[in-house]
Amino acid sequence: MRTIKKVYGYVTRVFEGKPQVLVFLHSNPKAGIQIPKGTVEANEDTFHAVIRELHF
């Protein structure tokens, strides 16, 4: 069985005293609201994969 590694990142901040989490609308309307996430590429460590997914 082949393992596929996935990563996700939560970007948070406090704005005007209230906590917020970064979300975005996917380019496919059926996918809805999402957080940054994706698949770890071959020969990539999870740290660099999540940084890549957060960079947009």
Quick recap:
This protein is an alpha+beta fold and 56 residues long. It is 16% helix and 32% strand. The longest helix has 9 residues, at 46-54.
Please describe what this structure looks like.
By secondary structure, the chain is an alpha+beta fold. Helices cover 16% and strands 32% of the residues. The protein contains 1 helix and 6 strands. It has a two-stranded antiparallel sheet with strand order 1-6. The longest helix is centred in the C-terminal third of the chain and has 9 residues, at 46-54. It starts with 5 loop residues before the first strand and ends with a helix. The mean pLDDT is 94.
Write the layout of secondary structure elements.
Layout: E1 6-8, E2 12-15, E3 18-21, E4 24-25, E5 33-34, E6 37-39, H1 46-54
Antiparallel strand pairs: 1-6, 2-3, 4-5
Main attributes of the structure:
two-stranded antiparallel sheet, single chain, two-stranded antiparallel ribbon, 56 residues, extended, 1 helix, alpha+beta
**Oligomeric description of these chains:** single chain
| SS class | alpha+beta
Helix content: 10-25%
Average pLDDT confidence is 94
Low-pLDDT sequence parts: none
Biggest beta sheet attributes: 2 strands, antiparallel
Q: What gap, in angstroms, lies between the N and C termini?
A: 32 Å
Count the helices. How many?
1
Shape: extended
Q: What gyration radius follows from the Cα positions, in whole Å?
A: 14 Å
Number-wise, the strands total 6
